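pasting for ref
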Amino acid sequence: MCGVFGIWRHPEAANLSYLGLHALQHRGQESAGVVSNDGGILHAVRAMGHVRKIFTREVLAQLPGDIAIGHVRYTTAGGSITKNIQPLWAQTKVGTIAVAHNGNLVNEESLRSQLEGKGAIFSSQSDTEVILQLMARSTAPDFVGQLVDALGRIRGAYSLVLTTENKLIAVRDPHGFRPLVLGRLSGYADDEPGGWIVASETCAFDLLEARRIRDIAPGEVLVIDERGLTSRHLPGAIPRRLCVFEHVYFARPDSLLDSDSVYEARIAMGQQLATEHPAQADAVIPVPDSGVVAAMGFARRSGIPFEMGLIRNHYVGRTFIEPSDSIRHFGVRLKLNAVPHLLRDKRVVVVDDSLVRGTTSRKIVRLIRQAGAREVHVRISSPPVNGSCFYGIDTPTRAELAASTQTVEQIRVSIEADSLGYLSPQGLRRAVRASDTRTFCDACFTGDYPVPIHHEPSVRQLRLIEV
């Protein structure tokens, strides 16, 4: 995960970037950064923590200019430390450039080794810096040519937003693993040069009262400058492979992904789940917040009343994307509290979006039983996660995934549920309206990796202390 944002020709570019990143905060909670472009001079503020804590009024005043890009991060490649915060920037022979990246490069380690063998000095552990290093070694006469040269050598997932001295550039990898959308701020006529924005999700547009124009196409390099919009496409016809987990969990339900509603997809997942794994119960309750919409779909199809039997403390981060195991395993009670009068002596269906290790699910089941539930039936609105993701999601290694080593019945016993049912891969594809022309990456469920993985890359989670 991660979230990226960019804005072209607006007098309050940094302020709007702050708002856009605030809307995308769910995509990364470890750090945030904004680089503004003031007539070709780049200014940067990057720090650990949440957007609203970093970008005060005084800080935003340090970011002049009418072009800006921003990033919210959670770690996949490179440790959760200050020098890996994005956007990254560099001074090159053709000018200054900054880049924000959502995704993960599967051949980063081999490229880094090759570049270091040729004398390259890296200032971060981020795979994004590999892109800048490759651009610096290109013989193309301009940034766009250098970028295309670099993209020809990298493999994996990347949705990029870049600013050069006089351009905003948006790029999506040929598979389209991660979302990226083009929008326009209200009040701008079609023939005006300014007001263009790009973001990971359309929910950022809603906050800014902007209109969605279209998705950046897989393999597209979109350049926004004084001439308007120009596009070129990376060579090779590759099937679209938007990450289906964006629909399952990561994206906000009020977003559109490749023109489709995340909310409606999750309703359909819950309905299909109720068809595949019905239960005799008195209440359907979600694991908030990610299980809410699917639980609504389950309740609609089953006719069982929907109740908010678990209440979430919204001042605690999402356990799935916390970088520290000590935080992840601190305890569900820090994040969730059961409502006893809704659960006492009830047969309860608990709907969650996914089951990864199973440790959190077991704690939730125990919490519900302690609140007085008579039966607890767990329903998961996605298939069993039995493979790691190498395209930008910080899933555990395969050995840590419950479904990679245990049967459904063994997992049920482990989480102490009365029954356990997962949505089938076919049911998930039906819910997201997959077809021969509308295809997704579901490798974490099926093992079908669109970009070949020859080995599990080592994780660069080095425990470093910066002074």
